[in-house]
From TrEMBL:
InterPro entries: DUF1040, YihD_sf. Gene3D superfamilies: Protein of unknown function DUF1040. It comes from Paramixta manurensis. This is YihD family protein.
């Protein structure tokens, strides 16, 4: 599982970092942390934060997070009925 997350992070990180080639890796990671609103120490930032920020970077602020898109419902009533089992897929 860790290899999969590492590969995903590298695939997302490489094209993003190529847009800022003048920054070293730590500077670029700090830039990503600042963009994502992370306030803690860089060493405390999780790989999930990096992955989701890189996936969502440059998209509309109201866009659905890719991992949650499968469970996304436009209508609250439909979501509630689906969660209660009234509506089945």
């Amino acid at each position: 599982m860790k290899c999969q997350r590492l590969n995903e992070l590298i695939e997302l990180l490489q094209p993003a970092w190529q847009q800022d080639p003048d920054l070293n890796l730590l500077q670029f990671l700090q830039k990503l942390a600042d963009e994502s609103g992370f306030k803690g120490a860089l060493a405390e930032m999780t790989d999930d934060t990096l992955i989701y920020h890189l996936k969502m970077r440059g998209t509309d602020k109201s866009a659905v997070i890719p991992g949650l898109k499968k469970d996304y419902e436009e209508d609250f009533k439909t979501a509630l009925l689906r969660a209660r089992g009234v509506i089945k897929d």
